[in-house]
Amino acid sequence: MKGMLNSKAPYLFIAPTIILLALFSLLPIVIALVISFTNMDLAGLANYSNIKFIGFHNYIDVLKDPLFIKAITNTLFYVIIGVPLVLVLSLSIALLINFGQARIFKVFRVIFYMPSVTNVVAVAVVWSYLYNPSLGLFNYLLGLIHMPAVPWLTNPVMAKISLIILALWRAIGLNMIIFIAAIKGISKSYYEAAQIDGASNWKQMTSITLPMLRHAIFFVSITTMIGWLQFFEEPLIMTKGGPLNGTTSAALFIYNNGFQFSKFGYAAAGSFILFFAIIAITLIQFKFQNKDADI
User: Fold this and answer.
1) Which listed residue, 22, 185, 282, 283, has the most CB atoms within 10 A of its CB?
2) Is 97 exposed, middle or buried (0-12, 13-18, 19+ CB in 10 A)?
3) Does the pTM exceed 0.85?
């Protein structure tokens, strides 16, 4: 009897976590998947008899929707520009802070990290004033050096770039901390041996630091790409997807259809298309990472 209890003890400890995961993560996913195959809207929410199973029509309609195609294009724009910038800047700042000797670099660590823990709504509101075409600080500074005002949030392409700048400012801090922790984990014996051999600082960084950080770089690239594929708060608060739907992301498209137009089935289908896209991109990255590890 005692041996039986001991064998089941691990399952008793993990049972609460499994139950919570099933109730608040797995079950909502299954329900959303079922909804994506129906025409559920406000009428269906009020009376379940109005809900009809329509198969893959929602998925087909979403993929044919010009606004969804534009939202996917905008999202890819965010990913292609934002992810490399986050990786390069956060890694560069982590290297500077870690190898910097002055005490001021410890202060920089806090300064760069603070935006990542600041409320995104408050930050977006403040940056909206900074981007204001007539009263904003950025155009005022440009005017001091006799440069023309920039249509930060009124031009579709410039608005996307403006949102990327804001998101970049917020994302650097957390990834910087991850890189600093990874750098601290590299044994100093590697650097001591390289210094004995006469390797320069640049050679040490390219031959020791960066190769030893490959797992941290991979982790940051995965999490950053997933975050940018789900880009939502900044366009919602600052531009509402405008101008001319130029900043509408895939996540904002799903939000608008689900919570503004009450097309729950349609929005659920869009969310699963985005979900499968994220999984596919993540698996591709894992495959390339495994190939690099084999080499």
Assistant:
1) 282
2) buried
3) yes
Angle ∠(99,103,105) on CA atoms, nearest 5 = 55
Q: Output the 3-class SS for 167-212.
A: HHHHHHHHHHHHHHHHHHCCCHHHHHHHHHCCCCHHHHHHHHHHHH
Does 245 reside within a domain? yes
Q: Is residue 34 part of a domain?
A: no
Give the bridge partners for 53, in sequence order.
38
Establish if 28 belongs to a structural domain: no
Per-residue pLDDT reduced to its tens digit, 105-152: 777 777 888 888 888 888 888 898 899 888 889 999 999 998 998 999
User: 42 in a domain, yes or no?
Assistant: no
**Per-residue pLDDT reduced to its tens digit, 195-218:** 888 888 888 888 888 889 988 999
Q: Are the C-beta atoms of residues 35 and 264 closer than 8 Å to each other?
A: yes
Count up the domains in the chain and report the number. 1
Structural domain including 166 reads 56-294
